[in-house]
Write a structure and sequence with these properties.
The chain is built from 16 helices and 14 strands. The protein has 399 residues and is α/β, with parallel strands linked by helices.
Length: 399
């Protein structure tokens, strides 16, 4: 199956192939490409493409399947790529904190989503648009993790396109996720500790991922971003960000922009936020943003792709839910890899929220039980990840 996601890639394919058999063209403006009128549409699928009426008629008449453009939605349901923070923040005015909720692309999509949720039942076309969008994000994320992204003047042949298959396939990226509470303050020692862990793992060649929001998630992206800069960059970042300690502070975005101004061109990382929790803004330090409407798809998928391990910083109900989702994936060998789980802050996870002893009990006699750990230090966390590479497993109960 050939996926084509740019006009340049389409021209290259037309020049190299005599047919459009097994071609999927996604979210492109194809108006004015006269050559398409002379091709058979047999085996061609068009996802939300704009075409001249004559061209569309000719392709459909000869066998093409055309999924229509969905109007009146503030996003591209068939988008061919992940988001960037800059795209989501389009419309933001530095120094005007109210411009985020009033003017940004991110907030407009959230407002549209919330308006649909207030209706019972949710309008069927709204739900369809959301599912098409999340499928497109799945596909773009699979491309990122599998290394099948291609330059804009080429096309690509792709098999699977789901997060689950990303977890079942060899990946060029060694994904480690860090989970933790959104309420973690920027001035807390744990915020710096998470950033240091993320920075060190990024420098070791791991690809860091988080839920993409504030708190421990922002610390994850911050550490990865600063991995390519000198060590004292983190001192400047922590001091600057600490002036707006919480995402509810009016200067939360402005202080992040100050850090980006001082230290541009940072290291790569992946944020996977959701408009389900759209009242919590996505942080600005990720380089790739896979933002979903479906929170369940986003949470299960984030854990699934973290084949090289998950670090659990202190958190509340959401983080604890993710712990047991991860346990279930490892316990039942849902995917082809058993991955390490390591808990940051022993007192928190054994006494304040005594999750770790229960997980150890559940894992007794299972291979993933040997890959559980807890530590108070960045050195201990990093050692646990590096000493416990993922184990290839089968789904029949045998490792």
């Amino acid at each position: 199956m050939w996926e084509i996601e740019s006009v340049a890639a389409l021209h290259a394919h037309l020049a190299a192939h005599s047919t459009l058999e097994d071609v999927v063209v996604q979210g492109l403006d194809l108006r004015g490409i006269a050559e398409l009128q002379n091709r058979s549409g047999r085996g061609l699928t068009l996802l939300g493409c704009q075409l001249d009426a004559e061209t569309e008629h000719a392709l459909v008449a000869t066998g093409a399947i055309a999924f229509p453009v969905l109007a009146d939605v503030p996003f591209r349901p068939y988008r061919p790529s992940l988001y960037t923070p800059a795209e989501l923040m389009t419309g933001f005015i530095r120094g005007d904190d109210k411009s985020f909720a009033r003017d940004t692309t991110d907030a407009k999509i959230y407002d549209w989503y919330q308006a649909g949720r207030q209706q019972r039942p949710t309008p069927i076309l709204d739900e369809l648009a959301q599912r098409l969008h999340d499928h497109a994000i799945d596909d773009a994320l699979h491309d990122l993790l599998s290394g099948s992204r291609t330059p804009p003047d080429t096309d690509k042949s792709s098999g699977s396109d789901s997060l689950a298959d990303s977890a079942d396939s060899p990946s060029e990226k060694k994904v480690v996720a860090i989970m933790g509470g959104h309420a973690m303050k920027r001035s807390e020692p744990s915020f710096r500790l998470v950033a240091e862990i993320s920075r060190a793992l990024t420098r070791l060649g791991y690809f860091l991922a988080s839920g993409g929001g504030p708190g421990a998630m922002e610390a994850t992206q911050l550490g990865a971003w600063l991995a390519v800069h000198e060590d004292d960059a983190l001192d400047f970042a922590i001091e600057t960000l600490g002036r707006a300690d919480s995402y509810k502070d009016p200067a939360w975005f402005d202080t992040a922009f100050e850090v980006l101004d001082r230290y541009p061109n940072g290291g790569e990382s992946l944020a996977i936020p959701t408009w389900f929790y759209g009242h919590e803004p996505s942080n600005l330090f990720a380089t790739h943003v896979a933002k979903y409407f479906s929170n369940s798809l986003r949470e299960d998928g984030l854990l699934a792709i973290a084949t090289h391990g998950v670090v659990y910083a202190p958190g509340s109900a959401g983080t604890i839910q993710e712990v047991f989702m991860d346990v279930a994936q490892n316990h039942y060998r849902t995917f082809k890899f058993i991955s390490p789980m390591v808990f940051l802050d022993e007192a928190y996870w054994t006494k304040t929220k005594p999750v770790y002893p229960l997980v150890k009990h559940l894992a007794a006699g299972n291979r993933y039980g040997e890959m559980l750990g807890v530590s108070d230090t960045s050195t201990g966390i990093i050692r646990h990840i590096t000493n416990n590479p993922p184990i290839l497993s089968s789904n029949d109960g045998n490792v």
